[in-house]
Design a protein that fits this description.
By secondary structure, the chain is mostly helical. The chain is built from five helices and no strands. The protein has one domain (17-117).
């Protein structure tokens, strides 16, 4: 079994496909599926009402209310899910870093410093 440092070095050199990355992110979003699934129909309603402004003037107010509710629901739910996903990604990264030996950080600090500041 490779050491944690070797596994970390190997994982940074892999080339992941877009499908793999999106499915991995969907796994994080799926943990909050209730809000996520609420936001998807709201986005569909919001986009469907974009072309509805050619309707009768009496329906304009109702259409604006539907657009406002759908827009709020869509924005709120997607932002809520994305904040939770970022939180979970940070926690996972932190947990992963805590499992690495000190020698990993000793050997990689100079490389990271050089890449970021030079």
């Amino acid at each position: 079994m490779p050491s944690p440092a070797a596994a970390m070095a190997e994982s940074t050199t892999k080339q992941y496909t877009a499908k793999y990355l999106y499915l991995r992110l969907l796994g994080y979003a799926w943990k909050h599926r209730l809000v996520f699934l609420l936001g998807i129909p709201a986005m569909a309603v919001l986009s469907a009402t974009n072309t509805g402004f050619h309707a009768l003037p009496l329906l304009l107010f109702a259409l604006m209310v539907v657009r406002a509710v759908a827009g709020f629901t869509s924005n709120f739910s997607m932002r809520w899910v994305s904040r939770r996903m970022v939180e979970q990604l940070r926690l996972d990264a932190f947990r992963r870093l805590m499992t690495l030996p000190i020698s990993f950080f000793d050997g990689h600090y100079a490389k990271l410093y050089h890449k970021q500041f030079h």
